[in-house]
Amino acid sequence: MTTTATEGPSQDRPAEGPRGYPGPGGAAHREHAAPGAALAVLPGVLRGALAWTDAHRTHFTLPDDVLEPHTQVNATLKPLGELAQLGSTIRRTTAPGTPEHELAGDLVAYAWEQVAAGELLLELLRAEPFAAYPYEIYAAFAGYGLRHEGFEALARPLTATRAWAHTEQHANRQLGLVNSERRVGAVPHTDAGAVLSRTWLGGLSEPWMFEGPSGYALTHTVFHLTDWGRMPDRVPARLDGYLRTWLPAWADGCLESGQWDLTGELLAVAASLPGPAPEPLLDAVWPVLADVQHPSGCVPETGPPVPDTTAPDPYPFIDCYHSTLVTAFAAALSLRPPRGAGETVPGRERRTA
Questions:
Q1: How far apart are CA 95 and CA 122, in angstroms?
Q2: 163 CB neighbour count, 10 Å cutoff
Q3: Which of 99, 188, 201, 254 is the Cys-Cys partner for 263 at CB 3.0 to 4.6 Å?
Q4: Buried b (16+ CB within 10 A) or exposed e, 40-79
Q5: Which residue(s) pair with 259 in the sheet?
Q6: pLDDT band with cut points at 50, 70 and 90 for residue 72
Q7: pLDDT digits over 219-277, tens only?
């Protein structure tokens, strides 16, 4: 058994700082990762991240004043929407009857309870008909099969307005709205292929221009394009080749700079590509992220991991909840049975040109 998230670094790891933080020479070492290294740590990483999320589910609880104008959406509804989105994907990706499958389902059910089975999202839509975020949060549930008739009855005329079709957004955000419309069953307000061509990724940007904001734009372009990894056939061949070529370099840079959240998102992208997964990349990166994961199961967003492995809550919730959810999401996608190149998946949409 290789090193797990609860053990110290093994002797054949690169020179490191506290608990897996890469030191000098790490990149050269990762180029020679042992085959199967990812598979050895992935089950434990997934279990740990989900266990931490479950133990901290009350932190996702919405406050009583969530509908008031002063409430901070990014600290309340955003985390809950991410719990619903990533939890539902993990549920769909894991095998029925496994603890991970059942726990992910419980977390989605908890999130649905928090929005009063959609009633709270309807109130948000009434209060902010010009805002996309209530619709996008609802779409996370609708894609899972949890629906609210009143919400959809109001959303239909709103999404048919000129204002909805001409909301000014970054291209990757607009692609997310198109995916939300697909999930709800509405006619997309614009062509996904045209939007994709305007993204950083769709333009095949110079790879050396990759940095934090462009990295997150890239990962979310893939998530929205593939419906959060569920439909890899939507990735055009030219983007597939570009990503397979440059993901290793980008992931290595994130490891060297301690960008664990973005590292997890890049791993999720790698597991969302059509055809066989890029196993050398997964084998090189997953063991490092497993070492960064705290024994409690959480993963920090950035920076050196805390040296105290016995602390029950080593990081503030806001500084680790997203990276922990992303790690679980990426692990679940990476553990999916492999698909052969060119394999057709019934019911999946054709790739966007």
A1: 33
A2: 9
A3: 254
A4: bbbebbbbbbbbbbeebeeebebeeebeeeeeebeebbeb
A5: 302
A6: very high
A7: 999 999 999 999 999 999 999 999 999 999 999 999 999 999 999 999 999 999 999 98
| pLDDT at residue 342 is higher than 90 | no
Tokens read off for 271? 């597991």
Q: Contact, 248 vs 291, CB < 8 A?
A: no
DSSP three-state, residue 16? strand
Q: What is the pTM of this model?
A: 0.88
Rounded Cα distance, 277 and 117, in Å: 36
Pick the closest to residue 237 from 125, 135, 350, 148 (CA basis): 350
Angle between the N-to-C axes of helices 133-142 and 149-158, in degrees from 0 to 180, rounded to the nearest 10: 130
**For the segment 277-292, what is each residue's pLDDT rounded down to a tens digit?**
899 999 999 999 999 9
Other Cβ atoms within 10 Å of 158 Cβ, number: 15
User: Tokens at residue 111, please?
Assistant: 């999130």
Q: According to the model, what pLDDT value does residue 198 have?
A: 96
Burial class, 307, CB count within 10 angstroms (exposed 0-12 / middle 13-18 / buried 19+) = exposed
